[in-house]
Amino acid sequence: MNNKNSISVICPFHNNEDTIVRAAKSIFDQTLSPNEVIFVNDNSLDRSLEKLTEFLHKNKKQFVIQIISINHSGPGHARNVAIQRSSSNWISFLDADDYWMPEKISNIDKVIRKNEYVNFIAHDEFTQNNKKEIINSKLSQYFDNKAKIPTQIYKRNFLSTSSCTVSKLLVEKYLFDPFLGSCQDYELWLALSSKMKLVFIQKPLCFYDNSLKTSITNSNQTKRLKNLLIVLFRYSKYVSFPLFCFIVSKHLLVFIISFLKK
Q1: What is the domain-level CATH number for residue 62?
Q2: Cα–Cα distance between 34 and 230 in angstroms, integer?
Q3: 124, 127, 167, 179: which could form a disulfide with 119 (CB 3.0–4.6 Å)?
């Protein structure tokens, strides 16, 4: 892999002792290795760091590995720190409770080689829900390469963080908003969207384990709605006013129905 195609993998973790080794192993099992892997320990209080360190000592690879420890600041800030420390031209994100298929980076490399102007790459993923059912989410079905990207992402966030690879030149100009407790990825994709040259790989190259995501309490759900509304207002220029009103109303209705069910 030459400098043009160089890839840094960024994997933040916070109390992920049950999954961090699985995530790390999926990086080590790639048919084409990355140039660099940066793990960011976001003040884990469990055995996450210990388990990761044990795995790395037992499994040596010919690429650079960094472990950065920070105070608990959230995944957005953790990713920002790693982006700024990275030495590659491309950044691939992996959440500690997700993992990749072995041919993930190989497919990314092929896209970079074939597309001179691409600066953002995404792909489909397998999802395991709370019922332990595994489905192909087929996120690519929501992307129309002939339509305006900002409007498409505004209407529906079809970009999953662990399935995204982005040019460092693009992402380092914006970074994640650490002041948003949630919706940080959605906000960043919208910030990048007007300059985004997106290629979508129609293959599931990631396993998104939704069964392990933190359950949403009423309090968390309220905070998430607040952050979502902040993002929707911030980028309302990407849609017409009637469509903006419709999208906001839809999210408010979903929140009310969910709240009443509890």
Answers
A1: 3.90.550.10
A2: 35
A3: 167
